[in-house]
């Protein structure tokens, strides 16, 4: 069964996502995650896990609830001095009902082996998962699934999906274009003596010379993240994607209003339930006509 995965961007939105048609809620955790999403503390993670467990207990008794999974985005690159803290966090996950750990640094894999957590791992190097061989290596080494780069063409995506049936594909939302572990906005602020604080500021955007749209840029303690100028939607291509048998569809919530994120979850659920993607897509685009919705890189190479 194909699952719908979506991200928790704000702690305050958790209940709405819990009641949505998403199967997995992907959260950011302080000390493990590099993202514009609000990062949970370990205590908040425990609270979220408890609420999901309570929800799932009710789901068993009612057809109106679909069971939920909890996953963590552990996508930081970890340096030697950080590994003891990371290991402590992973050890604690033995006691917390977390179903998935989306990782990019191989150090996570080696630590997960130590604590018998490999079967919870999802290999997600963001823009770098671009080959069948790469994905197959990780699947052969016991990870739950892999995430394909959202910066590939439809042809490339389908080729990888068809070969690796435990693969997740991003179908909706703003995609991460670039990551730097340098604090670029702080440097800019210092050089040009800007009065406004650019760090942890979600109102900052930039325009790349060869693009017309504005790209959200975000800096936190882990560095600088640049997101796409468009909001990917897959309605025109979802039938080909589904025919290639992905294990999951990822809806990125970064910089999306919660209403739009929830509507996207509902739309792709309707498509998985057999409704016409053309009709669902038309309705969604009419509802959110002010957003820069487009096909991302399905029809073009990353370099423009």
What ranges have pLDDT less than 50 throughout 5 or more consecutive residues?
A: none
The radius of gyration over CA amounts to: 19 Å
> Order of strands in the sheet with the most strands?
1-2-4-5-6-7-8-14
Q: Quickly count the helices.
A: 10
Shape designation? globular
Residues in helix, %: 25-40%
Distance between the termini: 36 Å
The arrangement of helices and strands along the chain is: EHEEHEHEHEHEHEEHEEEEHEHHE
Given helix and strand content, the structural type is: alpha/beta
Beta-strand proportion = 15-25%
Q: Could you tell me the number of beta strands?
A: 15
- The quaternary structure here is single chain
Instruction: Characterize the main sheet.
Output: 8 strands, parallel, barrel
Short description:
The protein has 304 residues and is an alpha/beta fold. The chain has helices spanning 14-18, 42-61, 83-92, 106-114, 132-140, 154-163, 184-191, 238-243, 258-272, 277-287, and strands at residues 3-7, 24-29, 39-40, 69-74, 100-103, 121-123, 145-147, 167-173, 176-180, 205-206, 215-220, 223-227, 231-233, 248-251, 293-294.
Question: What can you tell me about this protein's structure?
Answer:
This protein is α/β, with parallel strands linked by helices and 304 residues long. The protein is 34% helix and 21% strand. It is built from ten helices and 15 strands. It has helices at 14-18, 42-61, 83-92, 106-114, 132-140, 154-163, 184-191, 238-243, 258-272, 277-287, and strands at residues 3-7, 24-29, 39-40, 69-74, 100-103, 121-123, 145-147, 167-173, 176-180, 205-206, 215-220, 223-227, 231-233, 248-251, 293-294. The chain has an eight-stranded parallel barrel with strand order 1-2-4-5-6-7-8-14, surrounded by five helices. It has a four-stranded antiparallel beta sheet with strand order 9-12-11-10, covered by helices on one side. β4 (69-74), α3 and β5 (100-103) form a beta-alpha-beta unit. It is globular. The two termini are 36 Å apart. The relative contact order is 0.14. The model has no long low-confidence stretch (mean pLDDT 93).
